[in-house]
Amino acid sequence: MSHQVCAAFAGWLLSNAYVEWAVLWEGQLRIVHTLVARFVFGASFCISMLVLNFYASVLLDAMDAMFLLYAIDRDHCTIMPRGEQVFHLLLRHV
Q: How far apart are the C-alpha atoms of 78 and 83, rounded to whole Å?
């Protein structure tokens, strides 16, 4: 959780610096462009976090399933025909 907060804060700082650099106009128009740019950066950050969290959860679920199948094979003292490479890889590291 703390790394997500740090990433959010770093993203906000970078977007704030970019917005200040990119929007060099004066007056009311500068305020509107600054708000729009900050909204776009915030929305893109939220969308990317959702997508990356989804892919991370899929990867973790796949690893959990692979480890569970490895444990079942170990419990039954068998190796599935297509799982020999994975079995030997996990056997070295577990």
A: 10
State phi, psi for 29 to the nearest 5 degrees. Answer: -65, -35
Q: Are 41 and 19 in contact (CB under 8 A)?
A: yes
Rg over alpha carbons for the chain, rounded to the nearest Å, is 24
State the Cα–Cα distance between residues 22 and 25, nearest whole angstrom: 9
Neighbours of 8 (CB within 10 A): 14
28-76 vs 84-93: helix axis angle to the nearest 10?
100
Phi, psi of 78 (to 5 degrees): -130, 160
Q: Do the beta carbons of residue 61 and residue 84 sit within 8 Å?
A: no
pLDDT tens track for 4-28: 777 777 777 777 666 666 666 666 6
Q: For 17, which DSSP code?
A: H
Residue located via tokens 């929007």 = 23
Length of the chain, in residues: 94
